[in-house]
Please model this.
Amino acid sequence: MKQLKALQASALLLAWCVAAIVHSSAAAQPSSVAPGINSYYQNPDWQQWVNTFERPGREVYDRRHAIVDATGVRPGMVVADIGAGTGLFTRLFAQKVGDAGKVYAVDISRPFVENIMRTGREQGYTNIEGIVNSDRDTGLPPASIDLAFLVDTYHHFEYPARMLASIFQSLKPGGTLVVIDFRRDPERSSRWVMGHVRAGKDVVIGEVSQAGFQLLDDKPWLQTNFYLVFAKPGI
Ligand SMILES: C[S@@+](CC[C@H](N)C(=O)[O-])C[C@H]1O[C@@H](n2cnc3c(N)ncnc32)[C@H](O)[C@@H]1O
Model:
């Protein structure tokens, strides 16, 4: 009888421990908000994605110089191009920050980062550093960057709250976060955008503000994309 009671107590303790572990890991790691959205970047055909991202007719390609100028980037700054893809914006920022500055090309896709580094070397850039990050963390040092830049990347975040917390941590106080992404309007957006893009501008503003950022500007001049500027409070 005594043995049976001890066995029951152990079984209860074990069940409690398992429930506690499951609960705490679920709280620390909520499920993906967009499962599978990045699967085609895991083993990408580099040239195919260069042709896709760096193609006339893509608004953020056509307006790339105006987009970069509007960030206020200056020589000597440290910029993180998060979700760098084929490095279209990484290279433009590298030209602007010069030798005294630095651009981190951050992407969860190792082939993308390796190709950005390879083409960067071939073109003579010495101020680009690649980071293959996890889908929940930028991999950037704390308080290390002046500008975090996301083009067409926010809706690819599977764990947006985790990524925003990590971006917040990697920005210097007073640093800037720029988010450019597709407008999502049932009246005007394509069926592809409505199906592919999880969050419209208002949802993005809500989520980014929730992470501690202050909205500074909502630039109206892109047609199919919004352009939001946030600050990490601090100075
Ligand atoms: C549509 S592409 C945009 C590429 C580039 N920003 C451009 O506009 O040309 C989205 C990119 O985000 C990357 N990505 C998705 N989730 C990410 C995350 N959590 N951290 C960093 N990169 C991520 C993907 O691998 C992909 O390269």
